[in-house]
Amino acid sequence: MSDEKTTDTLQTATEAPAPAGDGSGLYLVDGSGFIFRAFHALPMLNRPDGTPVNAVLGFSNMLLKLLADLKASAVAVVFDSKRLNFRNEFYPEYKAHRPEPPEELKPQFALIREATEAFCLPCLELEGYEADDLIATYARLANEAGREVTIVSSDKDMMQLVRPGVRMLDPLKNKPIGPDEVFEKFGVAPDRVVDVQALAGDSVDNVPGVPGIGVKTAAQLITEYGDLESLLARAGEIKQPARRQKLIDFAEQARISRRLVLLDDHAPPPKPLEELRVREPDHQKLIDFLRAQGFRTIVSRVEAEMRKDGTIADGAVPSATPSAGPAKTAAPSPALAAEAGAPRSRPAPPTDVEQRYELVQDLNALAVWLERARTTGVLAVDTETNSLTPATATLVGISLATEPGLACYIPLAHQAPNAAASGELSFETPEAPKQIPAEDALKALQVVLEDPAILKIGHNFKFDHQLFARHGVRVSPIDDSMLISYVLEGGAHGHGMDELAELHLAHTTIPYKEVCGTGKNQITFDRVPLDKALAYAAEDADITLRLWRVLKPRLVDERMVTVYETLERPLVPVIADMESCGIRVDRAALARLSQDLAVRMAEIEKEVHQHAGRSFNIGSPKQLGEILFDEMKLGTGKKGKTGAYSTDSSVLEELAEQGHVIAQRVLDWRQLAKLKNTYTDALQAQIVEGSERVHTAFAMAATNTGRLSSTDPNLQNIPVRTEEGRKIRRAFVAAPGHKLISIDYSQIELRLVAEMADIAALKQAFQDGIDIHAATASQVFGVPLDQMTSEIRRKAKAINFGIIYGISGFGLGRQLGIAPGEANAFIKAYFERFHELKVWMEATKAFARQNGHVVTLFGRRCYIPGIHDKNAARRAFAERQAINAPIQGTAADIMKRAMARVPGALKEAGFDEVRMLLQVHDELLFEAPEDQAERASALVRAVMEGAATLGVPLVAEAGIGGNWDEAH
């Protein structure tokens, strides 16, 4: 599919960013973050001498991938030194409750530093400071030197460092983190993250914050009052009495919290900035280190790179050091795999499959392959395109495979070579390569692709299904190797083709960048020469078939056939059609929202100009710096390498704190600009011309619980409780003559808690249709229903939902604005009244400890990798996951059962024009002709309520309107 062989994993959402063009970009790797992610991502592995090495393996793999992807000239790996640092001097409780690292991890710390040195990368740490402080310091130094900085980490604490010239990169998701992503996480721009954290606190690091204030509330307060000090100074203006008093009582605690979370960007640098460069590794030293750990697969990769570079000759073995034992290609023992929460793996099949790939350029050759498909009854299919958006992508070619190693590629829309791009001078018009006209090829293929006697196999086949449907071909029946893997091993690992080929076939696939390039030199697949296209595309179909042959029999062996056949496979065409349809967006409404923000920004801009005494471009840091420091003489200012004054948020904040109104108003203007750019403008850019619709992509194999997730654009995260969010939802509209229908399950997760834990009192309340939160309050606090107050009901509601997510007394106390002791008493009373829930929770945790996973009511496995972690905090988190996963997973299963049944029910009832548009957690959104909306709504409600038979009723609530907000 012309990407990295799947679009359904987070890893492929964004290409790894290219380094700065002049080679001056600096990459700062959060080594400590890598260590713990690696340790918890892999099952326990030991060297022959018994030393644990799973974290070393994961860390080495990450470094190898990072260096290959980035090709950067300046990289440094930064580690924490010791637990205590300067923060403990003024707040001894900082991180005091964190348990010691797991015993299996302790001996790996030194090996990981040794691995860093073996890769010849600078290794940084400094006693008295955290790794985050060193990263902040080097980011500042590099930024001041005019260099671009990328922080390789997903740690939220480092999001405060994001600014022009400094960004983050999540190494596992391969996802850049810039101002937009920070805003999505905290609700404020990066320069206000520390203020939000100071209010919200952090129970993991023991940062106290202000009781009763979470991230959302903190973001609202900081947005309204500008910064922490302004908020605390004006705390008496807060309308809510409890919140006002908390801010007054805990003001000093908030200031301490800000000091704790604020990173020190003036730590003494252990090495000069100039020394943070990538050196050519000593290959012998690196291979010897990797062999000593038993990492055979990585050794093979390094040797392959050395052969490619000419460092060693083909067949030569650079070291006689004996292998120390099994590594990644040898699966851990079943006992170890289960203990780590990973699925039990089978030994990888042999990799010596002969590759017989053929380029098909005429109909006679294609006929031979179609006859092979009729003979075998099985055909693996994959498509290549020039885009990852199936609604608009061009079908460039199709690959087929009928036996392992036997595959072909059918080019359909490859372009003539671009001589100018290669630097060649030619006066002749290059000819397009020989290929079958797309219409003719698809007509020949259609007979086989729609033949019910031939099983078509794809990987992430939802994408291919949409492409074929656009050309009038409805592929059926199908199997999907990605979804089979997902059913078998869920969230235990990713399900992209590349990863599964390594895991199950011990085969490294051809990288997409090897055929299409990267960065400025990247070309679309229709420009790839046919010899390269053949090798890459035919391999896609070949590997898909081979994975299917390995994975499909396991469905029977592991009793997962029902999950695959009833919950996953039927949804491929359903979701493909849903994505293809898209949802109509009122471009004008979004434009008006953008205009409203623009007007407010213009008002602020006018005010800023009045303070400045003249007009200037407020969005120009250079002009702003000249105004502030040359003309208004507000300070000396600091000039960067370009000679312009720095006007980043820290500079403006300092000026604002000194009472300079112009600086505060510029900060306000930037905040509105961020809202405008992130939401109202960006969504307009994704509307497809002509249809006026946006087409989100639903990832079918991305979550541990079976939930779908939405990307490009993400329509599942539009806020529904804020006025701005509701305004955005109003821009999603029905087509002329149609209405939108929103139908969602009412309190489905609470109903499932009552069902799965068999809580008699709650089940009876649901059966009687009583307000469940009032009923809970009555049961727990002994208050008759006719004497129920809104405050008591609010507490019961918080406990009801909090119990599902394993809320603690500390967390509930913060939510309700009460002391942890009082909150613990509420939780204790809840469990005493609903003792069945406590029994079920303990049984579920015990099952997870024994099996490494939990199971939904419909048999889906949700893996819990940290359930045996020796770190108490991480183990407690895994236990909360074990309780929540079967509830959320069962809700997802019920929704999928409903989605699979709805299209057939609509068709049977004659509602041919009713279309399913979106699935948002517990909600389905439809578009229907206005005169059919009421009847279609009633039908879909009945299907959803009948999707499962439980001891509690499933209730679906419907709304109809001209836009999404009205319908919801």
UniProtKB/TrEMBL annotation:
SUPFAM superfamilies in alphabetical order: 5' to 3' exonuclease, C-terminal subdomain, DNA/RNA polymerases, PIN domain-like, Ribonuclease H-like
UniProt-annotated stretches for the region Disordered: 313-351
Low complexity: compositionally biased ranges: 326-343
PROSITE patterns found in the cross-reference section: DNA_POLYMERASE_A (PS00447)
Entry keyword Secreted: no
Domain 3'-5' exonuclease: 357-556
Subunit field text: Single-chain monomer with multiple functions.
Protein name in the entry: DNA polymerase I
Natural source organism: Azospirillum brasilense
